[in-house]
Specification:
With 214 residues, the chain is mainly α. The protein has ten helices and no strands. The radius of gyration is 17 Å and the shape is globular.
Length: 214
């Protein structure tokens, strides 16, 4: 298959609006009209509860994971730099699809779960380490946004200083650094709420649907 076709396919895969479809088909609401207004796993946990939020998060992760695996349909040889470059482009196309989904009026989420699925597919050890960082911060603070920001900042640090021997591709290192900046920028509103002390915490032990909080 041509590289352009694979990238478009990855974008369409990422465009599957999991949170929107779950909220509309099961709960009869549009999740984008509640909570933070984002169609992502964090808002799904906050508005729809643990069960729905977990399902949304897993599907959104799988979008990024399988988008990256589309690289194996190309003529490029695995474990080469061009192959890894294609994996990154495919993953980013899926993340872009999640943020601007063609199936949901281009109003999606922030792409964190899809981004994680992408990293998991490219470098599983780094991804699992990020899970530890995320869960530790979530356990301490109960802020999903702060946990996502912390994990994103840990991404390039882990790659450059701990998993350096397993990630030699320059493009992947640059991607990790760019990811940290991107996540911080897309969470600027959350950062403002964190500094103001009014960011919403997520309870993992009880339902919270529906509750319209910003």
């Amino acid at each position: 298959m041509t590289l352009a076709f694979l990238i478009v396919l990855a974008y369409l895969m990422g465009s599957i609006p999991t949170a929107v479809w779950v909220s509309k088909w099961i709960y009869g609401i549009d999740i984008r009209e509640h909570g933070s207004g984002n169609a992502g796993a964090t808002n799904a946990f906050r508005i729809l509860g643990k069960k729905a939020g977990t399902g949304v998060m897993l599907v959104d992760m799988l979008k990024g994971f399988f988008a990256v695996t589309l690289a194996y349909l190309s003529v490029l040889h695995p474990r080469t730099e061009p192959f890894v470059n294609l994996q990154i482009f495919l993953g980013l196309a899926a993340v872009l699809g999640h943020i601007f989904p063609v199936w949901a009026d281009f109003r999606g989420g922030k792409g964190i779960a899809t981004l994680f699925g992408m990293i998991l597919s490219i470098h599983a050890l780094v991804a699992l380490s990020l899970v530890v960082v995320f869960l530790l911060m979530l356990f301490i603070t109960r802020y999903v946004s702060l946990s996502s920001i912390t994990a994103s900042i840990a991404f390039p640090l882990l790659l450059l200083f701990i998993f350096n021997a397993h990630a030699q591709e320059l493009s992947y290192r640059l991607f990790a650094i760019a990811t940290a900046f991107m996540v911080v920028l897309t969470h600027h509103k959350n950062i403002s709420r964190l500094l103001a002390g009014n960011e919403s915490k997520v309870s993992l032990f009880r339902k919270r649907w529906p509750k319209n909080r910003e």
